[in-house]
Design brief:
The radius of gyration is 31 Å and the shape is elongated. Helix 3 runs antiparallel to helix 4 and helix 3 runs antiparallel to helix 8. The chain contains eight helices and five strands. The protein has a five-stranded antiparallel beta sheet with strand order 1-2-3-4-5, covered by helices on one side. With 416 residues, the chain is α+β, with helices and mostly antiparallel strands. It has a single domain, classed as Outer membrane efflux proteins (OEP) (Up-down Bundle), CATH 1.20.1600.10. It starts with a helix and ends in a 30-residue tail after the last helix. The C terminus is likely disordered. Strand 1 and strand 2 form a beta hairpin.
Length: 416
């Protein structure tokens, strides 16, 4: 019996030793994996083609696979054009999946950083509450000789109550956010919430902001991709409208799309293309209007993107400047507090001034933490807007980078 008990204890201790905390660096590694199972397009003969569609990655799956066997009676030129068109579709699927992975990373970073700052805020509130309670005790002692201090006592007590309520709220939010992140990451290991510290430090953000790729080299919206796809569709439809054959294709397909009754869908069909000379001009005009509209919307989106990017970058730089000023002020105030030593010769007035400085120091630390949180939030907004992964830089060269397209921008929307 004892042997079994000791064995269980040993196994339990061994499992705890082997279990490592899940860090932010571990999470970033999951986004360096290559995408898998994207669209494949091939001809098995001049007439027979097989198409397999999928938008599946390690983290996301946006559609099910579709396979089809088609006897295409279109001219060789049209079939080649269709091959090029399908390649554009492949890029569209892949970009959509990668952008979604990027969005997921941004949301995770935002939640993770909120936990980090909420934890800091809770600790700083505890220090501030202790300083206020010390002042309350001091005012209680000197109220006998100075009754006017009763107003200060009441104000201090109300301030303590507000701070304690704020602290309780922060602790509740902290536990809720931790559970949400654990559910989102779907891991069993303990999460090291402080491991994000080196990734969101103000100095790191400032360095990355200065190295951003100019706005002309990327666009943060799927409209760019959509415009390319629609433009190619426009050309494809024009090419197809010139066909003179009645039978366009014969297709035997298998669609693995999810349905309400969870059944697979089998498609057998024959496509007909009837010449319609009267409607041809109308259709071409409609396609041209759609294409012009998309180009116009893309132009507006680029202007909006440029303005928003410049605005966020300017706001971050201003906040970083304020952050440095806050840190300098707190550093000087901390030096003064270290020099002053509490002794029996200090008067009550001197003690009150010292405690006021401690309270001021704690309050400014809280404001600095809040400012840092705003900087990180804007930083993540910029990351979402530009589709640049600003967390992959030279400091993380230990990560595998053979499958990453670019050091800062693994997505590269401009290279369609």
């Amino acid at each position: 019996m004892k042997l079994i008990l000791y064995t269980l204890i040993f196994v339990g201790l061994l499992s705890k030793i082997n279990a490592q905390d899940y860090t932010f660096a571990d999470h970033l590694k999951t986004f360096l994996q290559p995408s898998k199972n994207f669209l494949e397009y091939s001809f098995s003969s001049p007439l027979i083609q097989k198409v397999s569609l999928s938008t599946k990655t390690d983290q996301f799956q946006f559609s099910k696979q579709r396979s089809s066997l088609r006897a295409n009676f279109a001219p060789l030129k049209a079939r080649k054009f269709e091959t090029e068109y399908m390649k554009w579709k492949e890029k569209n699927f892949q970009q959509t999946a990668e952008l979604a992975a990027q969005e997921n990373l941004c949301q995770t970073v935002l939640l993770w950083s909120n936990i980090y700052f909420t934890h800091n805020q809770s600790d700083l509130l505890t220090v501030l509450i202790e300083a206020c309670k010390e002042k309350e005790k001091l005012l209680t002692k000197i109220i006998v000789s100075d009754p006017a201090k009763i107003k200060n006592i009441n104000e201090t007590q109300l301030k303590i109550l507000d701070l304690e309520l704020d602290e309780e709220t922060k602790l509740y939010n902290l536990e809720t956010q931790k559970k949400e992140l654990a559910t989102q990451l779907n891991i069993q290991n303990t999460i090291d919430f402080k491991s994000i510290d080196n990734y969101i430090a103000a100095e790191i953000i400032e360095g990355n902001i200065s190295e951003l790729v100019p706005a002309d080299h990327f666009s943060g919206d799927m409209l760019t991709i959509k415009s390319k796809i629609e433009s190619n569709t426009f050309e494809y439809n024009i090419e197809k409208s010139n066909y003179k054959k009645i039978i366009d294709y014969v297709e035997l397909g298998l669609n693995d799309f999810e349905s309400a009754d969870f059944r697979k869908e089998y498609v057998v069909g024959i496509g007909f293309l009837f010449p319609a000379s009267r409607k041809k001009d109308i259709k071409l005009a409609e396609l041209e209007m759609e294409n012009n509209y998309l180009n116009h919307m893309l132009s507006l989106e680029k202007q909006k993107f440029s303005v928003e990017t410049e605005s966020i970058v300017l706001e971050i730089k201003t906040q970083l400047k304020m952050f440095r000023l806050y840190k300098d002020f707190l550093s000087k105030l901390e030096d003064k507090l270290k020099v002053i030593k509490v002794n029996s010769q200090m008067t009550n007035q001197m003690l009150e001034i010292l405690l006021d400085n401690k309270i001021l120091y704690a309050e400014k630390k809280i404001q600095l933490n809040e400012l840092h949180q705003k900087i990180v939030e804007n930083y993540i907004k910029l990351m979402q807007l530009t589709s640049q992964n600003l967390f992959f830089n030279n400091r993380f060269s230990a990560f595998p980078d053979s499958n990453v397209k670019c050091r800062r921008c693994p997505i590269q929307l401009n290279k369609l």
